[in-house]
Amino acid sequence: MKYKKEILFYIPAALANKNAIGGQVTAAKGLLKYVTDQNLDFDLIDSANATGKKYIKRRIIIFLEFLKLIMFSLFFKYRVSIFFKSTVFGLLLRYFPAIILKIKGTKTSIFFRNSSILNASSIKISLARFFLKPYDVIFVQGSHLKSELIKLGFREEIIHIIPNWLSPTFINSKNYVNSNIQSEIVRFVFTGSIIEAKGVLKIIEAVENDSIPNKQYTLTFIGDGLLKNKLEKYCAQKKIYNINFLGTLQHQELIDELRMHSVLLLPSFSEGFPNSVLEALAIGKPVIVSGVGEIKDTVQDNYNGFIIDPYRSETILQAMYCYINDRKLVNLHSERAIQSVIDRHNWKHNCYKLLCALDIQTLS
After folding, report:
1. Where are the domains positioned within the chain?
2. Could you tell me which residues come within 8 angstroms of residue 147 by beta carbon, excluding any fewer than 6 positions away?
């Protein structure tokens, strides 16, 4: 049987669903653009079509996509397959198509993008390990997840680190420049879901315990979530006037607002490598982040930001003090932030590395 096309993709490209956002969507869109620019033939099953739909409709869409994936796997032959997923249910859906493709000689791969599953129950970890067996190549975003998969018994040579990247449109726009601002005060900003898992309660606790005269900084929360209204009311009751809540913004509005701040604050309890951190670094914003997931591969303590313990609010406050007491440090970390993105998160270079790992030669 001859190859129908070079690549079978089952990834969240979100070509028809503009409500689907996030790191996986950004990675999928960037990879598709790179493959298209290289004139490689591919078939695509877009796994983002169900995102944001009501429960029954979402399940119907997922089932139809699964049938399509089975059909493509059974009746066509591909040189390589590239799937994205990190949940146990998602791995289950891809398991049998991956086995079929492997039997037919396809080089199978999966981009396993979320290390939080490894903190799940032993049953879920065992299931994830089983459902990852059919893949010839496993892509991860950083060294932490790679080491965890090796501990689970996977061979080191099949695991390839491919760091996340920004969208090509972001890179080619005015966003991808140093936007560090000169300000009399340090302006901290949080972007994301305002929920406990993102460390927002620890941020408030840190601000409450500060002893800085005249509040020589501001803090802005951008986003929505279960705790937003509660925290707004709490700050008003406690007369914490240097904290502002903006709610949800469109992406470009968010980036424009981010450019007007000095430092990103994101003390999450669990992450892979969040887009918000990557975008902040790319426009010259130092970051105060927890060292979870793959973040420490890019963010170095007191180099382009600070690594804190998200469970100890005093470490958040200490990092904030460093920038408040030394404004030149903001500028120094800002320059290093941009360089860290250029060095590690280059879109074209990382897509090239990914395809090389699958023995597909392209122009670098």
Report:
1. 5-165+346-357, 173-344
2. none
Q: Are 102 and 139 in contact (CB under 8 A)?
A: no
Q: 217: buried, middle or exposed (CB in 10 Å: 19+, 13-18, 0-12)?
A: buried
| Distance (Å, whole) CA 94 – CA 217 | 48
Distance between CA atoms of 152 and 129, rounded to whole angstroms? 7
pLDDT exceeding 70 applies to what percent of the chain? Answer: 93
Residue 267 in contact with residue 290, Cβ under 8 Å?
Answer: yes
* Terminal Cα distance for the chain, rounded: 30
Do residues 338 and 328 touch, judged by C-beta distance below 8 A? no
With bands split at pLDDT 50, 70 and 90, how would you rate the model's confidence at 167?
confident
Do 142 and 278 contact (CB within 8 A), yes or no?
A: no
pLDDT of 330-344, one tens digit each?
Answer: 999 999 999 999 999
Class of domain 173-344: alpha beta
CATH class of residue range 5-165+346-357? alpha beta
Sheet holding 287-290, edge to edge: 243-247, 217-222, 186-191, 263-266, 287-290, 305-308
Both tokens of 37, joined, read 């620019």
pLDDT exceeds cutoff 60 at 1: no
CA distances in angstroms from 20 to 30, 48, 173, 208, 322, listed in the order given: 15, 6, 21, 36, 37
Beta bridge partners of 243: 219
Residues pairing with 219 in the sheet: 188, 243
Query: Residue 2 above 60 pLDDT?
Result: no
Token digits for 363? 């122009």
Tell me if 258 sits within 8 A of 285, measured CB to CB: yes
The pLDDT tens digits of the residues spanning 214-248 come to: 678 999 999 999 999 999 999 999 888 899 999 99
Is 173-344 in the same CATH topology as 5-165+346-357? Answer: yes
